[in-house]
Known about the structure:
The chain has five helices and no strands. It is mainly alpha-helical. It has one domain (2-90). It is extended, with a radius of gyration of 17 Å.
Amino acid sequence: MGLQAVVGQSISLTTIVFTQTLTKLVGTIADSIANGDMCGLKDIKIQSAVVVSYLFGALLSGALIVRKMDLVVLLPFIGVALAFAMHRLSHRKPT
């Protein structure tokens, strides 16, 4: 599956998102070590934050399933709304 993600990424084909994120993270770390270039550190931070948010989402979903199954249905909608709000806030012009 990892090989599939690397090949898919090299020809700009999207594969499974989580696998692709992990593959990109490991690839960026390996490139930074091999080249001795620390410019990829920003990419590593972003990709690490994405992996942490995936894990947090899985933990939250699991907790909601154990406690109240009704709220799990709303979780994707809440996630999209939060992503949209953060996008709008990040592109807001300073006043």
